[in-house]
Amino acid sequence: MGTYLHTMIRVQNLEKSLAFYKLIGMHEIRRKEVAEGKYTLVYVGFADNKTGEAEIELTYNWGHDEPYEIGTGFGHLAIGVPNVKEVVEHVRKSGGKITRDPGPVKFGTTFIAFIEDPDGYKIELIEI
Description:
Elements: E1 6-10, H1 14-23, E2 27-34, E3 39-45, E4 55-61, E5 77-81, H2 84-93, E6 97-104, E7 111-116, E8 122-127
Parallel strand pairs: 1-4, 5-8
Antiparallel strand pairs: 2-3, 3-4, 6-7, 7-8
């Protein structure tokens, strides 16, 4: 038996990505600079993660200037929020990209929306 720890995504601009994830209520939990490997890892999540919630590992490779390809196998990250409409409006007012406005999932009742981070990763917001 194991524990789900995090999802890793490569980001082109670490500060821009951190600012985006703060918009949706996440914050930096810890950071690791690896000079030998020329990269920085920043883990973002909610609260202080003492109870083991899943995190997002933002990986910034120093000197990598080209955008990353997201890949055909990646679908989205899912984040539960108490008010999807409120989060979407906050992201919209801050210049973020909304790819699906808030509403019930097709053929269901779960209330969702989709947004994209600065690198184009899709994030599903699910009202909890």
